[in-house]
Design a protein that fits this description.
Blueprint (H helix, E strand, L loop, with lengths): L1 H21 L13 E5 L18 E9 L5 E8 L7 E3 L16 H4 E8 L1 H5 L5 E2 L1 H11 L6 E6 L9 H5 L6 H4 L6 E2 L1 H10 L2 E6 L13 H7 L5 E3 L10 E9 L7 E11 L3
Parallel strand pairs: 5-7, 6-8, 7-9, 9-10
Antiparallel strand pairs: 1-12, 2-3, 4-10, 4-12, 5-11, 11-12
Bound molecules: zinc ion.
Length: 274
């Protein structure tokens, strides 16, 4: 078993090194991660996990826990949840007929160098803040043009309220009526359009429940991005720990065949030079 795990770990290191090599990430030898710090951008899943007001949320039931009649310890649970809740990915199919389902999203869209746009100061006083074109052009004025194949991450600062639903998303009520009471920042549809028409990004993500802001009724940013097969990561954690550029993101969801989205484990490697 130990050898088996080692083999898997070694293979994974080779694959990830190959991804770095292809994307110009500093290479420090064969089958080796660059020196740096791994940051977990994932909230854990529990009964506290934030789901859309119309969702039932994450449930973990014990199937068995304890000593079996043969004398060994055994634990197993069963979980149920909506696709869209907690730290998760929206597959393009979520709002775009015929576009990629969860299992169809290529690994290349889910791994890559990140650019982090910090709008936390603007969003702090305005839960209805929508990240605009100027937020991207201001970032570019300092950091240069958003490179092709980037994963664009929007730091609104709202992750610090997790899992307090009232502060994080405006309401802790349940059901369709509560949807009207949602208030949290998101990406302005004009900026989504600007990104898809003028830049070549792999994926986008943010630290609120939805890529469209809480008061959105038509989910236009979802629709603009997804028709170009650009997936979105939602309820992402710890974006304040990433540099504006230079981190490498790996965002691998559960591979649900035909899924419109699903739970996501997203991590970032921040190289030592940052
Ligand atoms: Zn979603």
């Amino acid at each position: 078993m130990k050898i088996y795990i080692k083999t898997i770990a070694f293979s994974l290191a080779i694959v990830i090194s190959a991804v770095y090599a292809e994307r110009g990430f500093p290479q420090q030898g064969p089958a080796q991660f660059p020196e740096g710090k791994w940051i977990d951008l994932t909230h854990d899943f529990s009964s506290d996990t934030v789901y859309w007001p119309t969702g039932e949320g994450f449930k973990l039931e014990t199937v068995f826990q304890g000593t079996t009649d043969k004398g060994y310890y055994y634990a197993a649970n069963k979980y149920t949840a909506e696709e869209h809740g907690g730290t998760h990915i929206d597959a393009p199919r979520h709002f775009a007929e015929g576009k990629q389902t969860l299992d169809e999203i290529p690994i290349e869209s889910l791994t890559g160098s990140a650019v982090v746009i910090d709008v936390s100061k603007k969003a702090a006083s305005d839960p209805d803040y929508q990240i605009g074109i100027e937020d991207f052009t201001e970032w570019e004025a300092v950091n240069g043009r958003i490179p092709d194949d980037s994963i664009v991450l929007l730091n609104t600062g709202y992750a610090k309220y997790w899992p307090d639903k009232v502060k994080y998303m405006g309401t802790d009520k349940k059901g369709q009526e509560a949807v009207k009471e949602l208030h949290f920042p998101g990406l302005h549809p004009a900026a989504a359009k600007w990104l898809t028409e003028n830049r070549d990004i792999s994926a986008i993500g943010l630290d609120t429940p939805s890529i469209d802001y809480g008061q959105s009724q038509l989910f236009e940013s979802h629709r603009v991005l997804f028709r170009e097969n650009i997936p979105a990561f939602e309820n992402v954690a710890n974006l304040d720990r990433l540099p504006p550029k230079g981190a490498f993101v790996i965002a691998l969801p559960m591979k649900i065949k035909g899924g419109s989205g699903g739970p996501l484990r997203i991590v970032a490697l921040v190289p030592e030079t940052n």
